[in-house]
Specification:
The chain is of the alpha+beta class. Helix content is 56%, strand content 14%.
Length: 579
């Protein structure tokens, strides 16, 4: 009982050392099982020293079975060391595998070998054997992040039992060995297995802490980048820099934030504003290295920061490059008052911000490129003018000047209005319905004069909708389609009706004729695909449909149908709102 109490007291001290060890920077690589030979060697040394600490905090049993409570600095020939080194070696094997476990066991075993005493060969050999076996045992639990304390408790029973067997093998001639094993057996098994279980529980706690920190950093990074999106979309870098600096300083509660472009400081918020001025050129090697390397850099001293101001209150910094199209367009510098303020969670947060900002800048650039491409396509669609219509109208005006000069002048004015509207199409994506109807009426006047007696075009428009916006040259191509294709073979009595009416919260605009209608083979494709000129409409319906959907949304798309009494109808709707 006395030996058990003493071993647990010493293991308490050992677990304090273990707790400090779990807080070391390199310990996380073991938790995530990132194996590298250099790191494996380092971990083997650390756990080997931990094993030596377990020996030093062990106890010595004298020849008369008296427990000596002092720390183990030397051992007499008739004394035996009861070491706790197996705790460290088992953990080394479970976390680091056979290589780390064997390496740590060799270090701890070598120390026990030179201490000497009764059973020194068994004590020396059990450590590397335990490390090797624990490493291979860990492979059975490779799918688990950390072995559960219950499993660790069970695993921890076997190394002390292995020690007892080795003591019997190497010291079989010693009659007192059996009595000695009976004395130390149960206390060593209990203390070692329970200590290993506690250590694995500590590791699980550390892992949860790291995961919680990572989750917090991720959530914070996502929130900040979402709030930064309006600033990232700013056209001028100066506004972009000011918005980011203010946001990061307020949300992260930093000592200071500086945002730069490739050459100079564009914004600074926080401490050090008396010398971190806007317009200061980027001269330090740290800033230039961040620009060229496109990686996050961390400086833990004013010497690394290279600030020339003697009384600068900023002693450490994390530099985040801003990457757009694989080029560094600027830097975000997160300043701290003390190096100790840069914890792992701050570095994780910076890494998250770095990736998210790069992705956002890439998305913004892609959206701008798509917008410019769409604008170019819309401008191209809007600028189309049918040369045949122009030539036929000019011939008609020339003939009218001989028969009806007044009518000729009127039609010339209408043609000028029609042409002026078409030339202005490239400068506007949306126009008022009033302007659009003027364009359509000009076209109707020209067509009805040209086909006098052959067709009549009705235009019906309610009051109070002239202010609504519509893509330019939307109605006229529909009227032209009815004239050129629907009434192509009609010699008299042709009718086209342009009608606008309110339906719920939208204005429905329809163009219907009493012509031949759409062939069934192209009815479903009309407006959805580019048809040939002979297929009832050519590209006209398709161009109109694309403009409507791109500028007013899917609800504004064209609908095409044949009428039961003959002819066809093409209609669409636009949003209605009060002026």
């Amino acid at each position: 009982m006395h030996l058990t109490i003493v071993l647990f007291e010493r293991l308490g001290l050992l677990l304090v050392i273990a707790f400090v060890l779990t807080r070391s920077p390199g310990f996380r690589s073991l938790l995530y099982r990132e194996f590298r030979f250099k790191m494996a060697g380092l971990h083997a040394c650390v756990f080997g020293l931990f094993g030596i600490a377990g020996t030093l905090t062990g106890v010595v049993i004298d020849s008369d079975f008296t427990v000596i409570n002092t720390f183990v600095w030397n051992v007499e020939a008739d004394q035996m060391v009861v070491s706790s080194s197996l705790v460290a070696i088992v953990i080394a094997g479970l976390l680091g595998g056979p290589v780390v476990g064997l390496g740590a066991g060799i270090i701890a075993g070598t120390h026990l070998f030179f201490l000497g005493g009764v059973g020194f060969l068994a004590n020396s050999l059990v450590n590397p054997l335990t490390g090797l076996l624990a490493g291979f045992t860990a492979r059975f639990f490779s799918q688990e992040r950390v072995i559960s304390p219950v499993k660790a408790l069970f695993i921890g029973i076997f190394p002390p039992i292995l020690l007892m067997h080795l003591l019997l093998i190497f010291d079989a001639q010693d009659r007192k060995m059996m009595e000695l094993i009976n004395t130390i057996g149960l206390p060593v098994v209990l203390s070692n297995s329970i200590a290993i279980a506690i250590f694995t529980a500590m590791i699980a706690i550390v892992l949860r802490e790291q995961e919680n920190e990572a989750a917090f950093a991720t959530r914070q990074a996502l929130t900040i980048v979402e709030e930064a999106l309006p600033f990232l979309k700013e056209e001028t870098f100066h506004k972009k820099a000011e918005g980011i600096a203010d946001l990061f300083h307020a949300r992260l509660k930093l000592a200071a934030v500086t945002v730069t472009n490739e050459k100079e400081v564009m914004a600074h918020k926080g401490l050090g504003g008396d010398h971190h001025h806007i317009g200061n050129p980027l001269r330090t090697s740290l800033s230039k290295r961040a620009l060229t390397s496109q990686k996050i850099l961390v400086a833990y001293s004013q010497t690394e920061i290279q600030c020339t101001h003697k009384n600068c209150p900023l002693e450490s910094v994390i530099i985040i490059p801003m990457i757009e199209a694989q080029q560094t367009i600027g830097l975000i510098k997160l300043y701290f008052r003390k190096p100790q303020h840069i914890r792992p969670v701050e570095v994780m947060l910076a890494e998250g911000l770095f990736q998210l900002i790069a992705n956002q800048l890439k998305t913004i650039k892609t959206e701008k490129l798509e917008l410019h491409t769409r604008d170019a396509e819309l401008n191209n669609l809007q600028a189309q003018i049918n040369p045949h219509f122009l030539f036929n109208t000019l011939h008609m005006i020339a003939a009218l000047f001989r028969k009806d000069p007044e009518k000729a002048r009127y039609i010339t004015i209408q043609l000028a209005n029609f042409m002026r509207f078409n030339l202005k199409l490239v400068s506007a994506h949306l126009v008022s319905l009033e302007k659009e109807t003027e364009h359509v009426k000009a076209y109707i006047e020209i067509i009805q004069t040209r086909f006098t007696g052959r067709m009549h075009i009705h235009f019906l428009q309610p009051q109070g909708i002239s202010h609504l916006l519509i893509p330019p040259s939307t109605i006229q191509p529909l009227v032209e389609n009815s004239v050129r294709h629907g009434l192509e073979h009609v010699s008299e009595g042709g009718k086209v009706e342009v009608k606008m009416e309110r339906v719920d919260e939208r204005i429905q605009i329809s163009v219907r004729d009493n012509g031949r209608g759409f062939p069934e083979s192209v009815l479903q494709q009309a407006g959805e695909a580019v048809l040939t000129e002979k297929q009832h409409g050519g590209t006209g319906l398709y161009n109109v449909n694309q403009r409507l959907m791109n500028l007013l949304g899917e609800e504004a798309r064209l609908h095409v149908r044949n009428l039961p009494a003959g002819g066809s109808e093409v209609y669409f709707s636009i949003p209605y709102h009060e002026e």
